[in-house]
Amino acid sequence: MNNDRVLIFETTLRDGEQAPGASMNITEKIRIAHQLARLKVDIIEAGFPVSSPAQFEAVQRIAQEVDGPVVAALARTVEADIDAAGEALRTGDKTRIHTFVGTSDIHLKAKFGSDRYGKSLADKREYVLKMVDRSVRQACSITDDVEFSAEDAGRTGIDFLVDVINVAVEAGATTINIPDTTGYCVPKEYATLFKTVQNRCKQIENVVLSVHCHDDLGLAVANSLAGVLAGARQVECTINGIGERAGNASLEEVVMALHVRGSLFGTQTKIETRLLASTSKMVSIATGFPVPPNKAVVGANAFSHEAGIHQHGVLKSRDTYEIMRAEDVGQDPEAIRLGRHSGRHGLFSRLEKLGIFVGAERKEEIYKEFVELADLKKEIFDEDLVALAQGHRGDSAIVHYRLDHLSVNCGTGRIPRAEVLLYHGSSDTSCRKTAEGDGPVAAIYKAIDMAAGSHHGLVSYAIRSVGEGKDAMGEVTVLISEHGTLFRGIARHTDVLQASANAYVLALNQLESFRASSGEEFVSDGIMQSFGSNGGQE
Asked: Cβ contacts of residue 171 below 8 Å, gap of 6+?
C-alpha cells in the first residue's frame, strides 16, 4: 500500500446502524451501499451476519450487488460467527472478515468472568490469545483480507495489547484495528498508543494500522486524525458520525480535514468529496436522524454567513472566512444567508445577483424595511427580497391613510371582530372603529371602511406565500373598484391579517390619489357585497 493513502473504512451500515432508532431495512442499506461506492470509500462494513437473518441477507446482497469497495462482515472471535460471515460474503469479489474480541481488563472481567475461561486474570488473557489465533486463522482460510480489532484497546494494558496484536499478525491478519471503543482517549495518548505498537510489535510494517474512535467526549475526529499522524492508514468512520452512544468519527469531517490540511498530514484519500452532502442527506432520511444545521462540512449553515462583517469579507474574498469551497463537498456555494445580523453589503450584493439594481436614493429605505422584516423572520429568502424591492413600485407618494393599529379577535364559535386605528392625512386626525364580519378579513375591511368614512367595492382578494419556511411572508393583493376604475394594493407580512389590512389601505391610498388628481367623486356599493350580504352587521 502507498504510505500516503488513507483507507476509508465506512461502517454506517454496521456500527452506525447500532445507534438507537437508526436501524434501516435491507432496501435502504443496499441503496446507501451503492451511494458509498459512488463516494469511493475503500471498505464498506455491511453488517454483522450472525446477529440476525436480516443482517445476513444485507451483507450477502451488498457483497453480490455493489461493485468497487471491499465488503466487510463483522464477527466475534467465535467459530459460528466467522462461518456466518464467510457464508454471507461467499459470492462477493472483494471481501473482508473483521473479527474482534475485548482486551481490556474491564472487558475480560465482564465477558470472561466464568472460571471456564480461567480463574485468574492471567489465565483469561491466555484464553483470549488462543481465541485470537484460532479465529484469525479460520478467517484467513476463507479470505485473504482479514482485520482484527482489540476491542477497548484504549483502556487495555499496553503489554497485553502488544501480545494480542503479535498473535493476530502471526496468524495472518492484514489489518490491525486499535479502537477507542468507549471514546475514553485524548489525542496525545491515542497517538502514543500507535507509536508504542509500531515500536514493540513484530512484523507490524506488514499490516495496515486502523483507527476506530467513538465520540463520547467529542474527540472521535480529533483522535482519528491523531492516529493518522502517528502512522495509522485506515480510518473507520460513519456518515454524519452516527453510531453507538454519542456516535463514531464523522467521515465527512475526517476526509475534509485530511484534504484541507493535506500538507500537514502528508496523506490523501480517494473520496469523491462532491458527493458528501448528498450522501449525508441520504443517510439522514434513511435513519430519521436530522443533520444539525451547525454540523461541520454537511450542515445547512456550514458555509453560511449572516454577520455583516463576515459577509463583507466573504464578498471580497471567500478565503477570509472559508477554508474549503462549498461546491467541493456538494453544498450550495451561495455563502450569504440574510438575517437580522446582516449588513448592507450582503443585502445589496444579493439583490444584484437577483437582477435587482437599487438606486442610491432608495437604498436607505429598502435597508430599513429589510431590518424590520429581519426582526420578524429568522432568515430572509430570495423571494422575500424580490417582494421587498418590488413593494416600492407604484406606492402612492402622498399618505392619505395610514393604519396605526390593528387587532383581531376570532376563534371557534366566535364572530370575528376587528379594531383599527386609521390616520387621515388630509385632516391630521385618527379614527378608531370596530366591526364584525363573516371572517377576520371581512371584519378588518369593514372596520377600515368605517374608519375611512366610506365603503369601497372589493373586486378581488388573493393571498400567496413568498419565501420558505414556517415564517414565510404572506403576500396579499387587493383590487377595489370605483365606477369601473380599479385600484390595487399589494402588501407582504409574516402575519397574513396584517398583510391583508396593509394591502387594503394601500389600495385606498391609490384611490384617493386618483381622486385628488382627477377631481372626481365616487359612490361605493360597499365591501360587504364581496363577502356576503350578512357579513358582520353591528
From this structure: 132, 133, 136, 137, 140
- Residue 173 CA to residue 180 CA, distance in Å, equals 19
**153-174 per-position pLDDT tens digit:** 999 999 999 999 999 999 999 9
Q: What angle do CA 8, 298, 191 make, to 5 degrees?
A: 40
Radius of gyration from C-alpha coordinates of the chain: 34
**What is the sign, positive or negative, of the torsion defined by CA atoms of 501, 507, 510, 512?**
negative
By the 8 A CB rule, do 491 and 475 touch? yes
- End-to-end distance of the chain based on CA atoms, in angstroms? 87
Neighbours of 73 (CB within 10 A): 34
Helix (H, G, I), strand (E, B) or coil at 77: coil
C-alpha to C-alpha distance for 153 and 149, rounded to whole angstroms: 8
Least confident of 180-194, 209-223, 469-483: 469-483
Q: In DSSP terms, which residues pair with 486 in a beta bridge?
A: 481
Cell triple for residue 372?
424590520
User: H-helix or E-strand containing 401?
Assistant: strand 401-411
CB 438 within 8 A of CB 531: yes
Asked whether the beta carbons of 267 and 254 are under 8 A apart, the reply is no
C-alpha–C-alpha distance, residues 72 and 389, integer Å:
57
pTM (two decimals): 0.65
- Look at strands 414-424 and 429-436 and give their pairing: antiparallel
Angle at 10 between CA 212 and CA 40, to 5 degrees: 135
Residue 472 has what DSSP assignment?
Answer: P
Instruction: Give the Cα separation of 395 and 192 in Å (integer).
Output: 71
Distance CA 382, CA 472 (A): 11
Q: Residue for cell digits 365591501?
A: 527
